[in-house]
Amino acid sequence: MKFDDYHIAPEIKKSLETAGFKKPTDIQFKAIPAVMKGEDVLAIAQTGTGKTAAFAIPVIDRLHKQKSSSRSEGIRCVVMVPTRELAIQIAEVFNSIAKHTRVKTFSVFGGVEQEPQIAKLEKGIDILVSTPGRMFDLVSQGHIHLDRVDTLILDEADHMLDLGFIKDIQDLIKVLPRKRQTLFFSATIDDKIKKLAYSLVRNAIRIQVSPKNPVAKNIDHSVAFMPMDDKRFFLERIIKENAESKILVFVRTKVRAERVFSALERMEIKSITIHGDKEQSDRLIAMNEFKKGTIKVLIATDVSARGIDIPSVDYVINYDLPEQPENYVHRVGRTGRGMQKGLAVSFCSPEEKPVLDQIQEYLDKPIAVLQISAADYAQTLDFTADSRDDLQSLMKEVAEFEGRKKKKKK
Ligand code: ADP
Ligand code: MG
After folding, report:
1. N or C: which end of the chain has fewer CB within 10 A?
2. Of all atoms in ligand 1, which is nearest to the CA of residue 45?
3. Ligand 1 first shell, C-beta below 6 A
């Protein structure tokens, strides 16, 4: 079946064509009719399989058709997401699909001035994409009215219903109209969260695509064993041998992100970091530089593991293993998106072995081991510019010091 055969507005078909979307993906094929019928849906499908359009197309279609027959005002649909970057990205997808309609989508998120957001809200929008914090601020100040919302979407639903966010979601549900459609989308979900999701809706139908293997099939992923101290040499080698590739490097903490950044700088590799301690404006700059490819290496914490869609990320490197097993799926899922193929490798030190075991248990199968021969290993350590650089800078310091001594003597 092609998008052409769907009962969706020609205005939407036109943008899908421009985007190069001809056929629906599996999850779109299964979810779009159910969402169009107005059902509550819990949809689980692997990373990069087009979940955003699976909910955006039917929601835009409905609002577009309603807007052409009556003047409907106010926010009709709320999409909740965990990060600001994801809010922006999803609003972009909605706006590009709705380009030829009068349906307007807007994202709000914290960390930036709220005045421009308020001005935009006052002009009138139909769909709001938001992180919980800023939305509640604007609701309590009376800039956002939720009394006409009839569709609530939780993207990265398992995360939105998990400890950090569940209270916000429960508070949100209290202020939304009782009669509404609720949609949950994610690549991962466990039984506990699934139950919680069902408790929030009446008759959710469940849609699941490839549930047995949470890692998308176009991702070739493996693990390499090495001591913690050798990781940087392997990182350097991969980056230098793949100079044209976009590489996303995940680390455990913000401090580790900055440390890896400095190590790469010493190796004369340009990179940029993104993590929760950075100003919002710097986070957006980092994301854009990486998207454009002006900087090919992005070092990130798990804030960027969920949902971010940068089509040509060739390589994901887990410099540190993720502590939450499901984040393995989300991190490696930043590559191999849509029809593309992706590579992912995890660096596992002896201390991280228990974390690896947990991840493998979660995946229900072992991750392929990247065998590194002794010769290759030695070559990698030799390959590095870091030790040479250190020696060079030391020599330079000594020379400068000697120079100063000579000057003083004169
Ligand atoms: P998910 O949320 O499942 O991780 P996204 O919605 O971010 O995935 O989509 C992943 C990529 O697939 C995007 O770059 C998107 O443009 C592309 N895509 C989505 N639907 C289609 C389609 N029907 N045909 C071709 N590409 C698609
Ligand atoms: Mg997504």
Report:
1. C
2. 3
3. 21, 24-25, 28, 47-53, 309, 311, 337-338
